[in-house]
Sequence to fold (163 residues):
Amino acid sequence: MMRRLFPHPVLSLLLVVTWFLLVNKLAVGSLVMALILATLIPLATQAYWPQKPRINSLPLFAAYVGLVVWDVIIANIQVAKIVLFMPRDQIRSAFITVPITLKSPEAIALLAGTITMTPGTVTADMNGDGTALLIHSLHAPDPDAIRDDILNRYEARLKRIFE
Fold:
């Protein structure tokens, strides 16, 4: 019965945590609302989840999350330096095509989300067959290095986690 009520328990847990982070208050009313959302949203979106995402290694996934958090902190500092101290005419924005070999839709979505969450970069598009992402970088003096960094730092880890 619990499995039918909570078809995606990890999503339900994330929704509860997210709700408490949004309301920033521990109260019975907040808990009730969090439980309502954690029950209804997974049930309403169940049809769009034909298969459960397969995570091969939770420790690798936890390490990936830690890496992304660290990279977001560092990127915030780098973007602040670029915006505050670099003359506008020296900023080299660029669109970069990143070829990907990930097959799992969840892994591709996580890669695109990671790129977008990291300040200074945003995923702008994905080609029709899912083999390349188009990203925009605020400052890309060496676009090939940014592409290689994304492939080596994120895609390689996501392959080990999902495939």
Summary: Strands lie at 94-99, 121-126, 132-137. Residues 58-162 form one domain. DSSP finds six helices and three strands in the chain. The first helix runs from residue 2 to 5.
